[in-house]
Write a structure and sequence with these properties.
The protein is α+β, with helices and mostly antiparallel strands. It contains 12 helices and 17 strands. Strand 9 and strand 10 form a beta hairpin.
């Protein structure tokens, strides 16, 4: 797995259970996955020599992020290494411009959008779609970075002047959608075409970063849930995705609109470790190995996952909070990613499974809030 973050870390346990020789490419021995995986290759994801060292003793290469340059993946394919998902599919998760073009050609529901090169083009787009608008960089952004809501051309001028673009990135502008709910439809797909779909979940973002996930999405019209699932399965097939695919969507005035794609395990699927028969991490591994996929159904009426995000104030070591949260709620599941604490950093998550949604929400938020130092009792 290229990338040594928390997604690779959480893939290690199902890999061990399945008897898979699992290696990661990490930037340092202290990176999240490198702390728990036996075979670690050190190097950067855009270093051809590091990728070659990882692939030298590997049959299949997959990812915990989408940032590897496609030409380097093509080189691995030329050496006979299986890369899943392949570079042609992965480009859609790497580049929002490429994604928007393909989804529009598919007839998938997307916001009104355009590529722009200067502020005047954004203002021209606003004549048809009104202000505010959403301004995005096509490559390199995540967790709300590289995305801005803009109210006028002056803001656009400032942003475009002060924001450097990474290689091959362009500016995009999209209509601003006053959505009622954010949802995620996750599917797993194998090379021979088997696919399974997880229940559509509700996600809550705070400052562009996922804070809460509820599975299945409460209050979502069943017809919209089915439409979102069908759309995710169609995208996975048409883009030839292998592994996990997360389709992040907005619910707007009784319809769904695609926001983003991710071709790997995703934050909106962490609930599945305890809340589904087969977790997204195990199904990602099964899919890239072309093994039969596991059952994605929930094991209880409600599962809530809340992220533990680094606060702006100092907090004690996270393990010191275990005595309280575990004693208060023996059914609380805590996952820590082995990261040092800093503001706006995903440090871990908690999950609660149960029959009563209000109770499950309260318990999950209490556990996360105590770990983050928001509450002290």
């Amino acid at each position: 797995m290229i990338g040594g973050g928390q997604l690779a870390r959480m893939s290690a346990a199902p890999a061990a259970a399945l008897g898979i020789d699992f290696a990661v490419l990490a930037t340092s021995e202290g990176e999240s996955a490198a702390q728990v995986v036996r075979r670690v290759v050190l190097g950067d994801h855009d270093d051809p020599q590091a990728l070659a060292r990882l692939a030298a003793n590997s049959d299949i290469v997959t990812f915990d992020h989408e940032h590897v340059p496609p030409p380097m993946l093509e080189q691995l394919l030329d050496r006979g290494v299986l890369v899943r998902p392949g570079p042609d599919a992965l480009r859609h998760a790497q580049d929002k411009w490429h994604m928007r073009q393909t989804l529009s050609q598919m007839g998938a529901p997307v916001p009104a959008w355009a590529r722009v090169d200067h502020p005047g083009e954004v203002s021209a787009f606003a004549e048809d779609n009104g202000w505010p608008l959403v301004l995005k960089i096509s490559r390199g952004g995540y967790d709300g970075r590289g995305v801005w809501v803009v109210e006028n051309e002056t803001q656009v001028e400032t942003l475009m002047r002060q924001t450097p673009l990474v290689d091959a990135a362009v500016w995009l502008v999209e209509e601003y959608l006053p959505f009622e709910m954010e949802i995620s439809a996750q599917v797993a797909r194998s090379p021979h075409g088997q696919a399974v779909a997880y229940p559509v979940v509700r996600t809550v973002q705070v400052e562009g970063m996922c804070a809460e996930v509820v599975a299945p999405a409460p209050g979502l019209d069943p017809d919209l849930a089915l439409e979102a699932t069908d759309l995710a399965l169609r995208i996975a097939q048409e883009l030839d995705v292998v592994g996990m695919l997360a389709v992040e969507l907005f619910v707007v005035s009784g319809r769904i609109v695609v926001n983003e794609l991710a071709m790997r395990p995703h934050n909106s699927g962490h609930w599945s470790i305890e809340g589904a028969v087969t977790s997204q991490f195990e199904n990602h591994l099964r899919a890239v190995l072309d093994w039969p996929l596991g059952d994605p159904r929930t094991i209880a009426p409600h599962t809530v996952m809340v992220n533990v995000i680094g606060p702006d104030h100092p907090i004690p070591p996270l393990h010191e909070a275990f005595r309280h949260v575990m004693a208060r709620d023996p059914g609380l599941h805590v996952h820590l990613y082995g990261k040092s604490v800093r503001p706006r950093r995903k440090l871990g998550h908690v999950t609660v499974v149960g029959d009563d949604l209000d109770d499950v929400l309260d318990r999950a938020h209490h556990g996360a809030d105590y770990l983050m130092g928001v509450i002290d009792e």
